[in-house]
Structures are given as structure tokens and as C-alpha cells.
Amino acid sequence: MKKWSLQSSQEMSESDFQQWKVLVEEKTGMLLPDHRKTFLQSSLSIRMREIDCPSYDDYFQQLSSGMSGKVEWAVLIDRLTVHETHFFRHPESFNLVRNYLKRLMLNRAKEKRSISIWSVGCSTGEEPYSLAILIEELISELNIELFYGIMATDISLPSLATARAGKYSSKRLAGLTEAQMSMMFDEVEKDRFQVKQHNKDKICFARVNLLDLSDAPIDKVDVLFCQNVLIYFQKERKHEIVQSLAESIEPGGLMVLGLGDITDWCPAGMKRVKAPDVLAFTRNI
After folding, report:
1. How far is CA 38 from CA 2, 13, 51, in A?
2. Residue 89, helix vs strand vs coil
3. Mean pLDDT, to the nearest integer, of 136-161?
4. Collapsing DSSP states into helix, strand and coil, what is residue 113?
5. DSSP secondary structure letter of residue 229
6. What is the rounded distance in angstroms from the CA atom of residue 27 to the CA atom of residue 23?
7. Is the pTM of this model over 0.70?
8. C-alpha neighbours within 13 Å on the C-beta side of residue 258
9. Under a CB-based contact definition with an 8 Å cutoff, are residues 258 and 94 in contact?
């Protein structure tokens, strides 16, 4: 008998696809347009082979039942989301954050108050670690003492595990300067570098579903960085999520989104930052 693991992908009917579209959006808020049918079919088939599940219907039922279904969702979500990222992706956004923090950090150092950052959709960790590098450079440049904390969240448990480990190949670190490498990493084996423990200690990684932001224990952050996450959501859902995110920002705080995430709309209580090639808002004081 031919094993399932050796069979080609099952063809997904239109009714199957519509059923899965609804389930994925209900669970995660992610939108799967019609042209993503082949992608969904491929992703499901690979996972079904791994767990020896014979049909889309059987897998659908497995995902919809009990604690085992919740665990399986965590695995599947990792297959359905894109994790393409690298350190200091979109430099213009990081430069805006640097300029904003430079002024804020000087004031906070005088007041002996800390800085808080939220990296939303942190994937495998490059974004929050880039933010940590940026802050450490500013602390050295300004010659100040300042405590800071970074909350980094994602829906994917495997991605969060990679982020917590903080271990990367030299290829993943391409673009960092020697000074940044020395400040942030230790070479632990050939071509493998790990974030120094005292830098890791400044970052807390946690699983957060953007549909359940009311349950996220995060409030009054100074900078919220959210890029390449909202592409998965419908326009109306994007507005709901961005509005919820905006409400977690300190008065005067900064929110940086991905270019094209939202157009011709500004969250209530926020003001658009006039900066070329960056989509950002500040919270009204």
C-alpha cells in the first residue's frame, strides 16, 4: 500500500478552500485571498503528511477539537506565515526610531525613568535585537545610564523559540558592523553567533495573537514597531488592530508600521509623522 507520506498533494475543492479560509480568519484574522489557494493546499498537505492525516476534512476536525487542536494550530500557523526578515530591515524606519529615541532618552535619563519598546510580529528575533542594538548605541553615544525593556511578540511558537535562542549564522547577520557584532554577539561555534546574555535579558518574548490584544499584558509603551504583519488582514480588521495597538502607546509615543499597511486613515488619538518612506504616527499628548 502506498503510504500517505509518499503521495502527492490532494486536490483542494473550492468548498474545501472556502471552509479553510473561514477557519483561518476566525482563528487568526489572516486573510487568504483566492490566489493563495495553491499555497494553502501545499502547506496543509505537507503538515498532513507529517502527522499521517488522510484528508482535509480529518485535519479540519483535528484542528477544531480540544487542547490537541490548539497545539496543532500553533504548528500550522508557523507554516502559513512568512518569516522573511533580517537585521535593520527597512533602515528608514529604524532611523526614524533612532531620532525619536535620542531626544526621549536624554530626558528619561535625567528623570531616571526607563524606556519601553514593543516589537509586534517579531518573527525569529531580528527586529527586537535590532532595536536593542539601536538603543545600546544611543546609550553609548549620549553617555547616559538608562534602563530599557523590549517586549517582542509573535503568533508563531517555533519563531519565538528561535528568537529566544538568539543564535544566528554569519549570513543572517550580514550588514551589521564589527562594532555592532562585538557589542551584541558572542561567537559560540564556527559561523554561529549568539546574542550576549545581558542583551537577551532586556527582551521578553511572548506569544500574542493580534485578535486577542485585550488579553496582552502590554500598556503605555514609548515605541511600537509593527512591520510586515498587517499584510495578512482585511482592511477593516487592520483598522481594528491598529486602533488597539495605538491605545497601548504612551502619550507622545511613536508607532511605526510597514509602508502600505494602511492608507488614507489615521487611528483615533494619533497624528501622522511627516517622514519620507516611513509610515509612522505619534500619540496625542
Report:
1. 24, 11, 20
2. coil
3. 94
4. coil
5. S
6. 6
7. yes
8. 16
9. no
Rounded to the nearest 10 degrees, the angle between the axes of helix 66-80 and helix 157-165 is 70
| The pLDDT of residue 7 is above 80 | no
With a CB cutoff of 8 Å and minimum separation 6, the contacts of 271 are 281, 282, 284
Strand, coil or helix: what is 206?
strand
Nine cell digits for residue 162: 528561535
State whether the Cα torsion 66-28-13-18 is positive or negative: positive
CA 135, 232, 239, 273 torsion-angle sign: positive
| 224, 196 contact by CB (below 8 A) | no
pLDDT digits (tens, 9 = 90+) for 240-285: 999 999 999 999 999 999 887 887 789 999 999 998 889 999 999 8
Number of H helices, E strands in the chain: 10, 10
